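README: folding subset

This subset contains proteins for which both the sequence and a predicted structure token string are available. Records are stored as plain text. Below is the entry for 3,4-dihydroxy-2-butanone 4-phosphate synthase (221 residues), shown exactly as it appears on disk.
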Amino acid sequence: MNSPCPLPFLDEAEPVGPIASAEEIVAAARAGRMVILIDDVDRENEGDLVIPADAVDAATVTFMAREACGLVCVAIDGETAARLALPPMTRRATDPMRTAFTVSIEARHGVTTGISAADRARTVAVVADPASGPDDVVMPGHLFPVVAREGGLLTREGHTEAAVDLARLAGRGSAGVICEIMNADGTMARLPDLLVFARRHGLLLGTIADLVAYRREAGLP
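--- output ---
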């Protein structure tokens, strides 16, 4: 079964193996393709769709919302959060993973209600644009920024840090869009469900652990 969307990040002619190497994951991100990253079984044990923010369009958001069914978020570094003057969602995070959500946002210009795929893609583009500032967004909105911990994957092995580091390793800025993958029954997709999802949609699947090792070898500051 193939995706009903004709999407540029899917390549049905390219077979998907069990687990892609970090090198393959970075190469896919460099080409602007979406990938799946899974974290440790002792952590969230979840798989997220991940793509550099500057490669996102309306078709990307549609695919995430319809096929993955999780929350579409934009992972950013602290510098981006400061540039856009994004306040934290809460002063004291009490969730076990200490996920650093900011107040939700919308692009100030070029959107309608903000929830459509095109509107959310427009908001992502504003976030990814290094020339944008506080006046280019409004709060609250329909896109959820999450701030990566300083030091990235070397300090926290989460999907937020993985998305930011992947974009940096791929030379595509320092922001990425992520969305958790759910099963049709509403439960979270685990292995081997994620392998089936990857094969069905022609996506590479890699591990955050491999990306951590790759980042160390690459010497990313």
